[in-house]
Structure formats: structure tokens, C-alpha cells
Input
Amino acid sequence: MKQGASGSSAGSASAVAAGLVAFAIGTETLGSILSPSSRCGATGLRPSFGAVSRQGAMTLSWSMDKVGPIARSAQDCALIFPFIKGKNPSDKDRSVVDYPFSFHPPTNFQGYKIGYFKRLFSKKDTSRAAKNDSLTLQKLRELGATLEEINMPDSIPFDVFDIILRSEAGAFFDELVRSHQDRLLSEQTEESRANSLRQSRFISAVEYLQANRHRSVLIEKFNAIIQPCDFVIAPSNHQNISLTTNLTGHPAISLPNGFDSKGRPTAIMFIGNLYDEAPLLEASFIYQQITDFETKHPTLFKK
Output
């Protein structure tokens, strides 16, 4: 193996990209739907927090875990989403919210109010996706999109939020650590999951609560920024975007938008308002009508 597929849902995204399955279900706490979808050239929808029940899935962070579809296209995700969203008759996941969903994409972007994080798409961006991101913004404008500049919330201490995930993971795996079964995990390095679970026991309740107070501020600020828009556009490689939207619970979708100089897939990200996945999927469908990146398969799996 020469390259990794990224993220906890790497198998789901790589299987979809290879054409081995029509779609797969991914889970995300901090990027594990969007990141492998981006890396593999699949289309991954991470719905709003509470859109899809997590019953039966392993917990990592009660307040951040989400479930969503990974497929070839946005249209496929739109077909799958209604079947997995909402409450089941015997659902024990109390975070699940029932709300309506419809998918009726128009032919262009006229009529949509679209925001984009202009500073994150700056000319100083030297990432492998920068050129393709610029071409994507150009294509959107050609389809009638008027892009309004928005900015990320300011004065947010992003470094503190690791406390939330570590604390909640530590609580769920408390018995594993106290019974010393963590020693059976294959990775035992400083940055391994096993060591992270041990470290969680040194996080005080005060630190956890203070981190969630900062999270509340982030939620309010970010929601106020994007609420006037139908959806917003962001580069998929910006770490604070993934962290922010996983903390706030807003839905997002990763769309393949080309390949870098080494032939590796790149992607763009659309972010929507809470419990409103329709504009995301409709906009993604419009974009994919004039591109063919979502139809590509790795060389070994080409038909």
C-alpha cells in the first residue's frame, strides 16, 4: 500500500470510489466522512447532528458523533438520506430529530444566496487543491452563482476543543482503561488512541465545562454567520472548518473537484444550515451536472 485513504470511514469511501459498492455508510466525529471522501474522490454527506440515529454504532463522542452516506454523487446521497434519517420505532438515540427533507434541484445557482470563505481561498494557498478550488469557484459563477464573502468567527480558542472529544471518549471507554484492556490495542505510541484514552482521565470537570462554554460561543457565532445563506463554500483542506462544523453540528458535503499533480483526488466542501441538507445536495447536483469527477475510478478498477 503506497497511499492511505484517510479517516475512520476509509474503507467505506475507498470501496465506493473503486465501484465495489453503490454506496456506503460512514461515521464522523472530526472528519471521518468528509476527509476519506475527499481523499478517495467520493461524494460524502455528513448530515446535521441528530439527523441520523447512531444506535448500534460505537460511540466516540456523544455530542459530536454523526452518521451519513458516502456515494458516487450528490444525487445518490439524496436518494439514500431519506431512508436513514429520523427516528426508528425502537430508537434509543435521544439526539435524533425528525424534520422534513425534499430534493428538487433547479438548473442553475440563480436564486441561491451563497457565502464563501474568501480568505481561506486566498492567493497564498499553496495546498495541492488550490488550483482546482479556484476553478470550482469559477464554474459556480458561470452557473449563475453570486458569491458573498464571509469570514470565520474570531477570538475562538480552537486548541481547547480537543478536551471535549478526549473527555467523552474517555468516559465511554472508562471500563476498557480501568480493566487495562487498553494495553491490548496494537498501537501504543504517544499519539495513539490507547494513550489518548489514558490521558483523558487527567482532564478535570472544570476544563471540560470551560471548553463547552467556548463551544457555545462558537456555535452562536458560526450560526449567525452562515444563517443568512442557503449554503457556504469552503476548502476541504482547512482544519478549523472541519473542527468547527463538527462542534456546531452543521451539515456539510465533500465533492470531488479534480486531481492534483500526482493524480490524487481533490475536493471542495459545501456547508449548510442546521437541519437543512436540501440546498447542499441540490447545489452539489447542479455542480456535478457539468463535471465528471464523481464518475472516475482508480486505474485498477476501471471498467
